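User: Could you check the structure of this?
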Amino acid sequence: MIKKRIALLSFIVLGAVAASGAVQAQGTIKFGFVASLSGPFTIWGVQVRDGMKMAVDELNEKGGVLGRKLERVERDDKNSPSEGVTAFRYLVEREGIVAAGGMISSGVGLAVAREAESLQVPHFLTMSGAHDILKKNSRYTFRTCLPAAPENMESIAAMIKEKKITRVGVIVADYAWGHSLREAVESLIKPLPGMKLQMEVAPVPEKDFTPYLRKLQGLDPELIIATGHPPGAPTITRQAIELGMKAQIIGPWYPTDFMVQRVGDSMFGRFVDYACVDFENQGYKQLAEKFFGTYKRLFDNNSFSGYVMVKMVADAIQRTKSADPKVIADAIRKGSFDQPGYGWPLAYTEWGEMKGAKPILYTYEKGSPGQVNPGADWHPKVIFRSPSVQPYVPKD
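Assistant: Sure, the predicted structure tokens are below.
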């Protein structure tokens, strides 16, 4: 009798566990947003978050993935490596996310990447372009928009050669991304034939770049690379123009709408920036019209990155019939994802660098943008399409 009761009790417990597993299997699939919603990178973070929202809503309207709804859960990294690590770990251990993305700051991205590798949960970078974020043994961290710093300078070097530019000024910030750009400039731009180059380093919170620009005036640069100082790009642009400098200024993948708001009409034809989206593609225009209809902002690099990382994870889940983070990471690393309107298909090296990235350079031009940004009197104009850049190979 005792044996029968034990057997019956075991059957009931096992049945309850199986039922619990079945319920969990049918629950929502959670995707985490970990990026800045406060601090100097907030405007990037808000765009990524809203792009994710649009992708999640689209997928849920179509029934979700494998019959399960998607849910986006978010945490603000507060532009702090320790906050980013805490947020990521919380979302993995308490929320049960299958992946997370949106990282902007390279310093935070570096710390969270190490945590993602430890926890074995996919982590997608939007910006965070410092070259040392990925190691040769990285398997759970992936770039989606901004290539590693050396690849950015490959694109600039190609444009410099085409336009026969020989005088270049550079301003970088004193943090991981800025130092990565400095190294890339010294190895890829400085050795170009006939090149005269001058570089200045400023603190990340710097508000007045006049002293740095005055140091560059003696060079009379044809081009100022501000890519290495993301928060300072609008001020650098405005103050360079106010000082009467004739150089074009290249930005740091700055949120497009916000650049116009912060600099104004003087920047048209003077400011150049990168894109991982193709503003001339019809697929982009359709998504941009939809995004504007909800968020009343332009669908830019950051929002498209948030959108595409959710869609890419959903595609991996659908193909593998699994929401296991390890399976998702393996599927993404070995496959490819082509989103109409994105600058290039997303495919990866073993360590998570993008294969075949082709950064697009654009400027701002007066004129109607159509339905992608109603009410604006300007639009992005593509001026240079980079050839494919080589994926960065980590030293260790």
